[in-house]
Amino acid sequence: MSRLNLTLCTKTALLPQTNKTIAAAAAATSTSASTGGKWNTELRELSKQGQYSQALFFYRQMLRSGATPNAFTFPFILKSSAALSLPLPAFQLHCHVIKSGCHSEPFVQTALISMYFKFCLLGNAYKVFDGSPDSRKLTVCYNALISGYVQKARFLNGLLLFREMMVQGVPFNAITILGLVPGCTIPGHLDLGRSLFCLVLKSGLKSDLAVANCFLSMYLRCGSVDMARRLFDELPEKGLIAWNAMISGYSQNGLAKEVLDLYHDMQLSGLCPDEVTFVGVLSSCANLGAQRIGLEIEEKLERRGFGCNPFLKNALISMYARCGNLVKARATFDAMMHKNLVSWTAIIGGYGMHGHGEVSVELFDQMIQGGIKPDKVIFVSVLTACSHAGLTQKGLDYFDSMEKKYNLKPSSEHYSCVVDLLGRAGRLVEARKLIESMPMEPDGPVWGALLGACKIHKDVDLAELAFDKVVELEPRNIGYYVLLSNIYSDADNEEGVLRVRVMMRERGLKKDPGYSYVEYKGRTHLFMAGDRSHPQTKEIYAELKKLEALKIKYGEQENDELKRDQAIVNTAALHSERLAIAFALLHANTETDILVIKNLRICGDCHLFVKAVSKFVNYQFVVRDATRFHHFKGGTCSCNDYW
DNA sequence: ATAGGGTTAG
């Protein structure tokens, strides 16, 4: 009889229909009511598969059948209750634990502790730990407590407990470190992270892959990219997670080129990228305006069956939006079944940065109508959209609604948006008043927004005030010096221009050396003026010569406008751009090619240069600078301003 | 058999 039961159980456990599983298992076990064993096996399966509500249901059946839960039952049940965010059963379950006399079992205790942490009931969690003298000898209990405190932003409590462990002589293990280290990412604790790292090196845990990955992501989250890279390079074996951590860490720190290089290296190493990898890579494509790589990745995603991953969908929306392909961004967005706040933020921000503020506002209202609650991040997108589209009143209304309607405290980032909003509209006095009314200390971007507005509306006096403030806060941000210098220059104030220049020299600030880069086959190629470091330098310079030759061919034509362009090809753009374009021409050889070039100085002469070159070729150029997308085709250019 | 953990979008 009992053998028959066993087969029944295992068979049904494999069925996807859980209700059947429960019924069958319940029927099967009802004959041997007092032994918890088969119940526990079933509970483990349900909990493993994430079917938590079924697990709880099953537990109730178990009690009804008269079986007694034991120390092997509760960990599953407590975990299920925590996963379902049902605090009421949590207390009931705690009572059950006590009733069945399992409360001093270490595994049950740990499960109780972590359950209480999931419900943010830190006091209750600590009481479980404190209430039993044995728990102070157990690594597992400390582990649960430490990781709980760290996850609930109580790093200090976690640290104190870790110290207590050391003092008491309780051994720590890899899990202890994994729980504690993420807390070192809060500002000012990196040194602590480093000491922990030393400790781990001595303890022999360094060979634990998870521990190494944990430190890796700690460094990356703290912005210590170089340190992270060193650690990464030293890893004896790099798993997928290490690559992913490094790639998304670069991506979050704005090192988009490094992301693409690393993605390339990863493929060379024979590892297969997964969803997490692609999220990081796509977000870097967005930053570089590298739509073509983005498109390739989208194809790959479809092939790999990652088409439905919401993280990836959102990354795609953002990538297309930031590359200026609003049509595709919108199509991706519209096709998404379950749009979340991030999806909305991406599309709203996309329209905003390309000057379609009205669409952004419309979408935002639509989102609110749909019952999605906005957060601080989306307000930044909406406010920026309003200011770039000149929707001043609308923006002010939204800003007002943040606190009143949605109980969101504006951060200084929101203030800088509104200063920008007012400033662009020429309401400089109000902008300044807003800054003075801020509940927190205004930061660089806030004063910078005012300075930018002064440039538009030619207010030299206010500009000087804003500059004094912003330079105090960000003395090494060269952009502000350039801005003020331009303001003086617009006002024909030669003395002012000179003063700024002297100031820059005294502080040792130099304009960044000009560089340009082109993306090609998943890699980004960087060129500086006079650069000969590229492996294809020879060919590139040859191509450049051919470009010069074009001018001769061109000069034969009798057309004034063309002659002017020819002169520009000849004399204008800086060397780094020429190299980048020569490289691009060298490699592009299909008619549908779109060359995406990110260029920091696609202004004036360089703009005309690319325009002239595009007359000679069948390719399209998309050049992205700090403020616009420039789309060159057949000698014409259309610009999509962000602003 | 059972807890605790490393990588993901705006």
Automatic annotation (TrEMBL):
UniProt domain DYW: residue ranges: 571-643
Repeat among keywords: yes
Stored PROSITE patterns: PPR
Residue ranges of PPR repeats: 35-69, 138-172, 239-273, 340-374
UniProt keyword terms in alphabetical order: Repeat
Pfam families: DYW_deaminase, E_motif, Eplus_motif, PPR, PPR_2
Annotated InterPro entries: DYW_dom (IPR032867), E2_motif (IPR046849), E_motif (IPR046848), PPR_At4g14850-like_plant (IPR046960), PPR_rpt (IPR002885), TPR-like_helical_dom_sf (IPR011990)
Recorded family membership: Belongs to the PPR family. PCMP-H subfamily.
Cross-referenced PANTHER family: PENTATRICOPEPTIDE REPEAT-CONTAINING PROTEIN
Name of the protein in question: DYW domain-containing protein
